[in-house]
């Protein structure tokens, strides 16, 4: 028993001394067992398909930036001050593929050990006679969240658990400080001509950070209260200059 305890302690100390990238790789090696019962295919998106997904995400971000969507529960999804287009990351797509091809529920726990700040969104769809289009699944993230969205979340992201579950895929997609995305999916056959497509995207930097803003509303459309929230947050994260 003492030897086992010492071995566990040594292992813990070794892992703690590793870099985030090495800890992520070790975590991945421990999650190789698949839960798939009838996997038809899995895809790490690249090339033209990746371009189609990325283009659609950026179109939706641009829609928000221009303030063209008005279907919001408590007002408008206001135009943003700054909401840049994303670039595709093959590394993020590879990470997403490693998880989705195992057919496991939930999100990838290993991302907590990954270098940098990465977040993940997930969508599953059951279709008859065909596989779900990933572009359609991206649009589902956006439009399914819109009807539950509340303007007050823009300047300070602090939803209750029920609202979070309904809007988090949307808010992750339109988070201003994200720069990269990579996606993958897996298709299982669950019946006669019945298919379940699970689509996952990894995003960097991570969004859906409680207490932060999703994006800054365009200057002309901000309320005084929203401006105060932005000023307060910016002051909190700004490092004051060193004393002479």
Structure description:
Strands 1, 2, 3, 4 and 5 form a 5-stranded mixed sheet that branches. Helices cover 41% and strands 17% of the residues. It is of the alpha+beta class. The relative contact order is 0.18. The chain has 8 helices and 5 strands. The chain has one domain: Pathogenesis-related Protein p14a (3-Layer(aba) Sandwich). Residues 48-211 form the SCP domain. Residues 1-16 form the signal peptide. Pfam families: CAP.
Write a short abstract of this structure.
The protein has 244 residues and is of the alpha+beta class.
Low-pLDDT regions: 1-17, 239-244
Give the SSE string: HHEHEHEHHHEEH
Measured between the Cα atoms of the first and last residue, the distance is 58 Å
Query: In what range is the share of β-strand residues?
Result: 15-25%
Please name the fourth-level CATH homologous superfamily: CAP
Helix fraction, binned, reads 40-55%
User: Which CATH top level class fits?
Assistant: Alpha Beta
Number of strands: 5
Count of DSSP helices?
8
CATH architecture: 3-Layer(aba) Sandwich
Secondary structure category: alpha+beta
Radius of gyration: 21 Å
Mean pLDDT score: 80
Organism: Cotesia typhae
Pfam families: CAP (PF00188)
Protein name: SCP domain-containing protein
InterPro entries: CAP_dom, CRISP-related
Describe the structure using short key phrases.
five-stranded mixed sheet, 5 strands, 41% helix, 244 residues, disordered C terminus, Pathogenesis-related Protein p14a, signal, SCP domain-containing protein, elongated, disordered N terminus
SSE diagram, text form:
Blueprint: H1 2-16, H2 20-29, E1 39-44, H3 47-65, E2 87-88, H4 90-100, E3 118-128, H5 134-146, H6 152-155, H7 161-173, E4 180-191, E5 194-204, H8 224-237
Helix pairs in contact: 3-5, 5-7
């Amino acid at each position: 028993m003492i030897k086992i305890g010492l071995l566990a302690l040594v292992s813990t100390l070794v892992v703690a001394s590793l870099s985030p990238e090495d800890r992520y790789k070790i975590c991945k090696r421990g999650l190789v067992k698949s839960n798939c019962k009838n996997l038809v295919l899995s895809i790490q998106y690249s090339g033209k398909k990746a371009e189609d997904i990325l283009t659609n995400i950026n179109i939706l971000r641009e829609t928000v930036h221009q303030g063209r969507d008005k279907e919001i529960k408590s007002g408008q999804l206001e135009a943003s001050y700054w909401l840049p287009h994303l670039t595709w990351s093959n590394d993020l797509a590879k990470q997403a593929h490693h998880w989705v091809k195992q057919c496991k529920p939930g999100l990838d726990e290993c991302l907590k050990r990954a270098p940098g700040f990465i977040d993940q969104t997930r969508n599953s769809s059951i279709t008859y006679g065909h596989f779900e289009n990933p572009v359609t699944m991206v649009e589902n993230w956006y439009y399914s969240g819109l009807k539950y969205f509340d303007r007050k979340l823009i300047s300070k992201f602090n939803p209750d658990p029920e609202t979070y579950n309904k809007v988090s895929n949307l808010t992750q997609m339109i988070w201003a400080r994200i720069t990269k995305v990579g996606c993958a999916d897996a298709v299982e056959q669950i019946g006669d001509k019945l298919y379940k497509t699970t689509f996952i995207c990894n995003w960097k930097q991570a969004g859906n950070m409680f207490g932060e803003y999703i994006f800054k509303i365009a200057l002309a459309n901000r309320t005084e209260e929203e401006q105060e929230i932005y000023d307060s947050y910016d002051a909190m994260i700004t490092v004051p200059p060193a004393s002479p």
